[in-house]
Design brief:
Elements lengths: L1 H14 L5 E3 L6 E7 L11 H18 L6 H23 L9 E6 L7 E2 L1 H19 L11 H21 L11 H11 L13
Antiparallel strand pairs: 1-2, 2-3, 3-4
Helix pairs in contact: 1-3, 2-3, 3-4
Length: 205
Amino acid sequence: MVTLDQVTKALVVAKLPEGVVVPVLGNALQFLSVRNPGAAFSFAVNMTWVFSLISAAVVVAIVVYARRIRSMWWAIVLGMLLGGALGNLSDRLFREPGFGRGHVVDFISTPWMMPAIYNVADSFICVSMVVFVLLVILGVNLDGTRAVSEKQQRAMAEASATDAGKSAAAGPGSAAPESGTGADGTDAERASRPAADGSLGHDAT
């Protein structure tokens, strides 16, 4: 992503004069080379140093969190965000007028959608933010698991309570009698008793 962003910017700098509108798809897509000292889409043009620091912080945060990612979608989101941040940070660090104050090369114009001029890195950042919001809404965690909604938690709690109620209603008497108890046990006990003295026959005379 960073390579694509930097290659397109190099081609624009080499081939496209600043301020010249080049229609690509009529008014739907145009190329217009400008130098942006501010944030994405030419916002806050007098805060170049601030956005250089913010971009650097974003890059560090993504690298730290990358070790926790187990989800393919989160890997795509953070990869696109990292590529966009690095693309524009490279411009701010190494382009004129100086380190940390460099102007970002913007050249994509879509007047029907927005009046601002942007670049490939800005596109990566915007798309990653859209997917980020979708993942949060769907409850997809960094490890790929799905967060359980309150509705699902209530349903699981109700199911557990129902199962517990059925077990309590069955009661301890529903258990099968243990071996050696009950009628069979009683009969065995009677058979093992010695007969009464009278049943042994007459005493020997």
